[in-house]
């Protein structure tokens, strides 16, 4: 079943990806992510003392660990600064973390310089308006299922899973499967 979405035309099942999308995925060297709405479900909880809490999906986190073990770089680009984000980034050994990044494009350009990469080497996953500029530049632009329609319109791929509920895992598996690395990953655990 085909769903018309975004700049690459049609989104298909993983096994039926278009040649254009496969070629984009095969160039990926770095996965960059927004946080709220992508690594989380977008909810921010403040307790009565004003302490912030976010809920992260453990399978999304483990997918990032797997991706790094497979030789990829990881980054976070978020418009909000949060102690929780720093803790999660350190926990997952994220290579580069940008907080208070607005516009996000400035952080993205610094990321490219830092790792000496081109747009085509980056997969960026976003969900809301501040992500659009980066999505338009990234080699493989991904919107999570719960993204706003404007983000979905510029994405190469829209996840089946929601942000904070398996969307990052879905993208990591998609990258590794497309590049023929997923079986090797699985073999380490079976």
Name its key features.
6-stranded parallel beta sheet, disordered N terminus, 8 helices, 190 residues, two-stranded antiparallel sheet, 16% strand, alpha/beta, Rossmann fold, 10 strands
General description of the model:
- By secondary structure, this protein is of the alpha/beta class.
- It has one domain: HAD superfamily/HAD-like (Rossmann fold).
- It contains eight helices and ten strands.
- It has a six-stranded parallel beta sheet with strand order 7-6-3-8-9-10, with helices on both faces.
- The longest helix is centred in the middle third of the chain and has 12 residues, at 58-69.
- The N and C termini lie far apart (32 Å).
Chart the SSEs and their pairings.
Blueprint: E1 3-4, E2 10-11, H1 19-26, E3 30-33, E4 45-46, E5 52-53, H2 58-69, E6 73-77, H3 83-91, E7 96-98, H4 104-115, E8 122-126, H5 132-137, E9 140-143, H6 149-154, E10 157-158, H7 167-178, H8 182-187
């Amino acid at each position: 079943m085909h769903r018309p979405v975004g700049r690459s035309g049609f989104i298909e099942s993983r096994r039926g990806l278009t040649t254009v999308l496969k070629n984009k995925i095969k160039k990926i060297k770095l996965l960059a992510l927004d946080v709220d709405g992508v690594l989380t479900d977008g909810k921010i909880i403040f307790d009565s003392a004003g302490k912030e809490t976010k809920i992260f999906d453990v399978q999304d986190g483990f997918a990032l660990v797997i991706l790094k073990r497979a030789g990829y770089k990881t980054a976070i680009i978020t418009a909000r600064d949060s102690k929780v984000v720093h803790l999660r980034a350190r926990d997952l050994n994220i290579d580069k973390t940008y907080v208070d990044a607005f516009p996000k494009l400035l952080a993205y350009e610094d990321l490219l310089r830092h790792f000496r990469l081109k747009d085509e080497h980056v997969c960026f996953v976003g969900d809301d308006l501040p992500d659009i500029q980066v999505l338009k530049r990234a080699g493989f632009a991904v919107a999570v299922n719960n993204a706003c329609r404007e983000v979905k319109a510029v994405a190469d791929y829209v996840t089946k899973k929601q942000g904070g509920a398996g969307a990052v895992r879905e993208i990591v598996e998609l990258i590794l499967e497309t590049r023929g690395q997923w079986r090797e990953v699985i073999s380490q655990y079976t």
